[in-house]
Every structure is written in structure tokens, then in C-alpha cells.
């Protein structure tokens, strides 16, 4: 039985639940659940939507390794998803003209149309989720999240610097 002097101090659970990171994580999981439900009718998952959107945003073919990097995935993790998208006629995979060892991934016309529908549906879902917020509240939240994202970038850069 621990004595008072050796007992580990237990954090206040009410305070822990109100911590920013926990709240942000919870909101993210709920947001993602809503988005996944919204795309269920289109037969698209987060894993299949993300590469289509990256290709759509870049408006040009991407090398498989660059696409994986943009999605924060290992190249091997992307292979199965790309095979599904290619089988569905949404992307073309071919040799990169600049480097025949690399694969170049491009949207087909059907893939471009699907990506445009994904963007439109995403905006629709976002509008439903944010319906009770004033435009200035959304803007302040967006700016705050951008600052947090920039801080993560700075921390990652610091971690890459030697010693």
C-alpha cells in the first residue's frame, strides 16, 4: 500500500478532459465520422478521397512517392488504394517521363469529375457542421488552427536540424 509520500499525484480528470489537445482530437474524430457518413453514398472512404483530392489540387500528375509524401503515407501503404482507384477508372498510373523508375499518377476525366464532387460535398458537409457558428467565429478558429499547423511545421523543422 503506497504511503502518502510515495503516492503518485493524480491529475484532475475534469481539467484533463478540457485540455485543448483532447478537445481537438475529439472534434477531429467526430468531424471525420460526419464526413465519412456523408461520403458513404458515393462509396468513397478517407483513404480513397485523399489521393483524388491531392491530384485535383495539384492539377497535374504526381509521382507516386510525392503523392505518398503529400498524404503523409509510406509509398507501400498507397499501392492498394491506387490499385482500387485505377480499377474504378479514376486514375491512370504510368511511368514518369522524367524518371522511368518512378510511377506517375494522373486523374482521368472520371477522376477529375469525382474529385470536383468530393470538393462540393465536403463544402456541403462543412456548412452543416458549422451552421451554428458566426462567420467571425469560423474565421478565428481557422486562423488559430493555421497557427497551430505552422507551429507543427516549425517543430518538425527543428527536429530535422542537427544537434
Would you write up a description of this structure?
This protein is mainly α and 163 residues long. The chain folds into two domains: 21-132, Arc Repressor Mutant, subunit A; 134-163. It is built from seven helices and three strands, in the order αααβααββαα. Strands 1-3-2 form a three-stranded antiparallel beta sheet. A hairpin with a 2-residue loop joins strand 2 and strand 3. The longest helix is centred in the last third of the chain and has 26 residues, at 135-160. It comes from Piscinibacter koreensis.
Q: Report the biggest beta sheet as strand number plus sense, adding barrel if it closes.
A: 3 strands, antiparallel
- Give the spatial strand order of the biggest sheet: 1-3-2
Going by helix content, strand content and strand pairing, the class is mainly alpha
Average pLDDT taken over every residue? 88
Overall strand count? 3
Provide tags for this entry.
Arc Repressor Mutant, subunit A; 3 strands; mainly alpha; HTH_MarR-typ; single chain; globular; about 160 residues; 3-stranded antiparallel β-sheet; about 65% helix
Topology:
Blueprint: H1 13-17, H2 20-40, H3 46-58, E1 62-63, H4 64-70, H5 75-87, E2 91-96, E3 99-107, H6 109-129, H7 135-160
Antiparallel strand pairs: 1-3, 2-3
Structure in a nutshell:
The chain has 163 residues and is mostly helical. 65% of the residues lie in helices and 10% in strands. Strand 2 and strand 3 (99-107) form a beta hairpin.
Amino acid at each position: 500500500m503506497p504511503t502518502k509520500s510515495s503516492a503518485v499525484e493524480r491529475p484532475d480528470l475534469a481539467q484533463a478532459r478540457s485540455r485543448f489537445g483532447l478537445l481537438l482530437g475529439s472534434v477531429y474524430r467526430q468531424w471525420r465520422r460526419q464526413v465519412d457518413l456523408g461520403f458513404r453514398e458515393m462509396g468513397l472512404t478517407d483513404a480513397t478521397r485523399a489521393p483524388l483530392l491531392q491530384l485535383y489540387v495539384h492539377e497535374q500528375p504526381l509521382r507516386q512517392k510525392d503523392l505518398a509524401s503529400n498524404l503523409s503515407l509510406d509509398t507501400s501503404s498507397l499501392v492498394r488504394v491506387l490499385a482500387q482507384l485505377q480499377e474504378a477508372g479514376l486514375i491512370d498510373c504510368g511511368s514518369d517521363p522524367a524518371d522511368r523508375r518512378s510511377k506517375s499518377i494522373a486523374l482521368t476525366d472520371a477522376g477529375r469529375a469525382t474529385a470536383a464532387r468530393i470538393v462540393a460535398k465536403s463544402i456541403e458537409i462543412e456548412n452543416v457542421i458549422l451552421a451554428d457558428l458566426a462567420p467571425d467565429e469560423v474565421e478565428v478558429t481557422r486562423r488559430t488552427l493555421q497557427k497551430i499547423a505552422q507551429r507543427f511545421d516549425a517543430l518538425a523543422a527543428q527536429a530535422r536540424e542537427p544537434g
